[in-house]
Amino acid sequence: MSPSNRLNPGWLDHARMPLLQLRKAVDNAIDNWLGCPAGGTVVDFGCGDSPYRGLFEKKGLKYVACDLGEPADVVFEIGKPIPLPDNSADVVVSFQVLEHVWELEWYLGECRRLLKPGGKFLISTHGVWLYHPHPGDYRRWTRTGLIRELEESGFKVSKTVGLVGPLAWTLQVRLLGVHQVLSKIPVLGSILFVPVVLWMNLRIAMEDAITPKSITLDHASIYMCLCECE
Question: What angle in degrees, to the nearest 10, is found between the helix axes of 143-152 and 104-114?
Fold first, then answer.
């Protein structure tokens, strides 16, 4: 999936709602949560194709993409220190990576090591989603479970939001399944996909809009947390 699709998913994107909500949450965090001055350094730990690079750079922030291989700015090996100095980041971000990490102590420890005193750690991961190995897929969290995991790793969690509530994600999971089935049917599958995905994405948007935020907070598809080192 291209960065543009992650930033601006269309109505024919079978993962439109979670991608759209995540992009909005990242925008809000940059504008209202991080408090990072222009010229500050943001390290994206497990950046993939760096879909959010432009959101940080347009705010005048230095974005450093870190992943297991090129085209990342910094390449690291699992279990070994990222080749960046201690206390070198004003912000460390991790978007939809944690469920793919087996070595949680190492991963969260590196996030702490890289942060300057008073730096911020912004992380998102799944509460509910289908199995999606990349290359592995190991965990899902409740809101309280994720907060406890982060606190036991030395972070103080100051803000938490839930993205995509249960009315929407139950339908979203079905849409992901429909997409898998139709993609295997020659010709007819692609014809049927257009009206099906349009209708289901419209329902997902409507059902998420009427779900109270108090319900989504503890029953979300995605959780985002803002943390500081204790």
Answer: 60
The single-letter DSSP state of residue 100 is G
CATH code of the domain covering residue 124: 3.40.50.150
Q: Is the pLDDT of residue 226 over 80?
A: yes
Q: How far apart are CA 45 and CA 95, in angstroms?
A: 8
Nearest to 225 by CA among 114, 136, 110, 148: 148
Range of the domain at 38: 3-165+212-229
- Per-residue pLDDT tens digits for 139-152: 999 999 999 999 99
pLDDT above 90 for 169: yes
Q: Which residues pair with 125 in a beta bridge?
A: 223
**Residue 201 belongs to a domain:** no
User: Cα dist. 31→56, 59, 67, 135, 224 in Å?
Assistant: 10, 9, 25, 32, 15
| Whole-number CA gyration radius for the chain | 18
